[in-house]
Amino acid sequence: MAPGTINPGDAVNALRTIINSDYATYRAAAAALYSDSVVLEDIGGIYRAFFDRFPVQPWLVIIPIGSGYDYEQADHVGGLPGLRYHDIQLHLGLWGNNQTTAYTPQEYLELKMERQMLALENTLTAKPKLTISGTDNAARLFIDDVEYVDVAVEDKAPLQIRAILNTRIWTAP
Q1: Burial class (CB in 10 A: 0-12, 13-18, 19+), 39
Q2: Is 167 contained in some domain?
Q3: Which of 54, 66, 70, 144 qualifies as a cystine partner to 166, CB 3.0-4.6 A?
Q4: Number of domains in the chain
Q5: Cβ-count burial of 6 within 10 angstroms (0-12 exposed, 13-18 middle, 19+ buried)?
Q6: Within a domain: residue 52?
C-alpha cells in the first residue's frame, strides 16, 4: 500500500498478515495469564464478509467501514498535507455451550471472548507501524475501542458472542 493509498483493502491485507503470523503467540500469552479451564483456540478463519454460518470458530471478519482525509491532524505530524485514514472493524465471533464446574455456558463464552480479544489487541499493538509494501510505505494503527455484542440465538442453538475491535489506520500522503 503506497502512502496515502485510497484502497482500504491494502490495510485489511496488512492486518490479516500480522494476525496470521503473530496471533498464536499472543493467544498463548493471554491463556498463560490465567490458571483455569478456559481454553483459547487459534482463529479458525479470517474472512472479508459475513456468512449466515461460519464453518469454523473462532472466526474473524475484517471489513473497512470508511476512509477519508484529516487536514487538521496534519499539523501534529510534521505538517504533512492531509493524512489519509481508513477505519477498519475486526469482528471476532465464538459459539458454544461449554460448561465447567466454575462457569455457566454464558460465563465461559464471555471469558473466552475477553481473552481472545486481549490476544488480538496485543497482536495488533505490538506492531502499530504497519509496513504495507516496500520499505518506506507504512501506516500507523490505532485501536479506538472494543464492543461486545450478544447474538440472539434460536432455542437449543449454541450460544454466540461477538466482539468488534474498531481501528483507524493513518497513512501519509
Answers
A1: exposed
A2: yes
A3: 144
A4: 1
A5: exposed
A6: yes
What pTM does this model have?
0.85
Grid coordinates of 82: 492531509
In 3D space, the residue among 58, 55, 73 whose CA is nearest the CA of residue 24 turns out to be 58
Grid cell of 98 as nine digits: 461449554
pLDDT in tens, 128-146: 877 655 444 557 888 999 9
Q: Write out the residue range of the structural domain in which residue 36 sits.
A: 8-171
The answer to whether residue 46 sits within a structural domain is yes
Q: Provide the CB-side half-sphere exposure for 79 (13 A, CA).
A: 0
Tell me if 30 is assigned to some domain. Answer: yes
Least Cα distance to 167 among 6, 4, 8 occurs for 8
Q: What is the dihedral of CA 113, 49, 121, 55, to 10 degrees?
A: 40
Q: Are strands 159-171 and 137-151 parallel, antiparallel or unpaired?
A: antiparallel
CA distance 165 to 39: 21
